[in-house]
Amino acid sequence: MRKRHAFLLVLAVVTSLLIAAQGFAQIKTGAIKGTVKDETGQPLPGVSVEVRGESLMGTRTMITDSEGSFRFPALPIGKNYEVNFSLEGFQSFSRQNLRLTIAATLVLEIELKPATLEEEVTVTAAAPLVDTVQTSFSAKIDSDFLLDLPTSHRYMSKVISMSPGITNTSAFGSLRESNAYYLNGADISAPSTGRSWLSPQIDLIEEYEITGIGAPAEYGNFQGMVINCVSRSGSNTFSGALKLFYRHEKLTSVNTPDEKWPYHIDHYHDLILNFGGPIKRDKLWFHIYGKMFWTKITSTGADPDFPPDNQDNILITLMDWQINEKNKISLFYQFNLWQWAPAPTEYQPYETISGENDWIHAPMLEWLSIWNNNTYSELKYASWFCYLWYDPVDGDLTTPGRVDWGTGYYSDNHQYYYHWWTNRIQINGSISHFADDFIQGDHDFKVGVQFNRGYSDIIQGYWGGVAYFDWMGYPYAAYFWNPNHYGGIVHQIGAFVDDSWRISDRLTLSLGVRFDYNHGWIPDYDELDANENPTGTVIPGIPDVGNWKTVSPRFGLNYQLTPDMRTVLRASYGRYYDALIIGDWQDATPAQATWYAYGYNWDTGKYDDLWYIWEPQADLGLDPDLKAPYTDQFSVGLEREIFPNFSLSATLIYKKSLNVIERINTAAQYEEIPYYDDYGNQTLTVYNQVRPIQNFYLVTNPGDKITYRGLMLVANKRFSNNFQFYTSFVWSRAWFTPEGYEDKNELINAEGPLSNDRRWVFKFGGVYVAPLGIILGTNIIYQQGNFWQRSVRVRLNQGSETINAEPLGTNRLPNQLDLDVKIEKMFRLGSRLRATLSFDVFNLFNMDTPGRYVSYDAENVNFMVPTSIISPRIAMVGLQLEF
């Protein structure tokens, strides 16, 4: 027995290395396992076990072994699973109404009674809510719950905001670019920013899983959270839905009555199509998703006659082919046409707005092969390709833009543009093997190899080759810059081994380790003239960036404190290395154009007072010993199912992040000079750069540090008795200690809360099915306001610098309450057709909380003037037709 398991494990490792090469986390299935016993508690071998479900093609069957055990791996996630048990001489037994979630293992303990009559026992109770196997903490939000909640927009970011420990995609004190995003196991993170490039649609996804604590070794190249989205599939029944969501100015309140131009909706239409079914039952399924989203909205203070025209058009097709009982092929393809621009504001009018336009196509192909009930393999190819252009919405491609540093007003045009080619290509392979009674317990092994290639090439510049800056209405400076290339390429190879080791009925250990190799380079680029044409000169790139070889150990513990499987203690430790993100080091691209900074000369009436010249080939560098940013993470938590379908958990979290990548100015020489801050009645010591101005910006690890401490409380009520909810309260402290700078004044009063730090956040999402089938949903986020500190603007030899006059995080914006509600009612229009009417109200109390102030400088006329006011109370009407 043990030799057989050892052989299979070695075979799994070798095969995985041969068939795969890429990716990142790819978990998109779950498992059902358990034990069958008789009334005396003795195992029952030879029991026929059959599993069927809406998302499973056909059925799977097996016979319990000598210990009465059964196991079904790699089951598609979904609801209404049914497991049937039969053995001659015993009553047949059926466990129904089971829901399988991402990476979950449902453990069923079944007791068969002797047959006295020809009858079957059917149990429809759901499986225990507490996972007695998983050692990580993850928030899992399924489609049924999500679609009954009020959703101000139908994108993934709305789902992420519901998860505990996350504020504005900053997860548990990590930087926003340190997350990993997956769609059906494929990495959809942008290689240049680390943020999601595709946005999985709420109406397409079967379940979202957000994991930030205790993630296994399969998940790599992140420090914050992993967002794992699994899409719906077809089924053996034709079904479809057509949805329309509509907003109008007459359904919109005003929360800024003193403003000349309040928030305004010109139009808002969101049309969604879902359609799928069998081409051949239990053999070939398809699903089609389409979306046409079109809005024209202006923010508070913006002229409503000039709303930006925003559109998102998506077509997605999915195919599932069950080749035979053991093998399944899945195909996914997405095409996007996207047009987006921010709404103009009082300070940034329509003629100064630029917007993004892009097209994306993303093909994915997956092969799942089940060797037996203990072993299966997965092989996946996925990619996405995009071209994006960022240009003025009014089409002015020549006029230089202007910004007033004193008032914050923009005029004439947007200052800069970029045109961007980017893509990601990946291949993943893994093998999973369950070994029972092997080395002191049962082991669930998973090994895999991953390969990922990311590409980014941006052409950027100023319109007209120059950007102008004023001070309180008077000309002050001009920066001159020609078009230029900016980007890089990265290869990432990873290998991992995970072992979920069930030592006893109560204790499970999660042991894992992964190895990652990250290598990047900046390619050779053409020098460009003012019209973006190559000059004939090729500028050499940088052949080696990073060359990181990292090892990440992971450890987790799940211990059942009580024999009823309803109370567990979880603990975890892990080291998490960030990906080699192109945006962290593309600043060192040698092909960037020379940049000239001139001050305005009142004697000549021209911008001819040369301040300094920035030459990328001479003034930029990349540390050849650049190190990988990493986080050491510790957690311990307790979860208890208080009564059926309701659990409470408390988790303590500590994280320490080092090797943050920043630029540091190694050539600048400074003299310390006093600056009197009249408003604060204090003298600040500031850094005046000694002339002649010399700068050398080195991309390196200057020594920045981030620490995070948090307490997370979660209450989870699964749907029963006509209601469900998911609520959390998180108290945390994310602290940033900087060492890097481009100008040394950036270090003044710079230690303090990390961006997006909120000391406390309360979240609640709930659904209640009222009489007459009326569904009521609410989503609440109440959180401490973001921090701010007063600043001063000081004119120095190196130019005008903004300096913190108070310690970071001295003040807080008002606390923010987001309360949304929804009511919907379904009407039957015959045996198969259904119509659902919905009415969502966002910002129910019509709050007017600002997101920031126009200026934090007391000498600025707009000091502490609120801006980025949250959207007013808005109602949205929805109509859905289903069959």
Describe the structure.
- There is one protein chain.
- The chain is mainly beta and 883 residues long.
- It has two domains: 137-229, TonB-dependent receptor, plug domain (Ferric Hydroxamate Uptake Protein, Chain A, domain 1); 230-531 and 542-882, Maltoporin, Chain A, CATH 2.40.170.
- The chain is built from four helices and 57 strands.
- The chain has a 22-stranded antiparallel beta barrel.
- It is globular, with a radius of gyration of 29 Å.
Record keyword descriptors for this entry.
six-stranded mixed β-sheet; Maltoporin, Chain A; 22-stranded antiparallel barrel; single chain; 4% helix; globular; Ferric Hydroxamate Uptake Protein, Chain A, domain 1; disordered N terminus; mainly beta
Let me know the average pLDDT: 92
Structural class assignment = mainly beta
Give the domain tally.
2
Beta-strand percentage range? over 45%
- What's the assembly state of these chains? single chain
- How would you sum up the global shape? globular
* Terminal Cα span: 51 Å
The CATH topology of the largest domain: Maltoporin, Chain A
Gyration radius over CA: 29 Å
Helix tally equals 4
CATH architecture of the largest domain: Beta Barrel
Q: What's the story with the biggest beta sheet?
A: 22 strands, antiparallel, barrel
Low-confidence stretches: 1-25
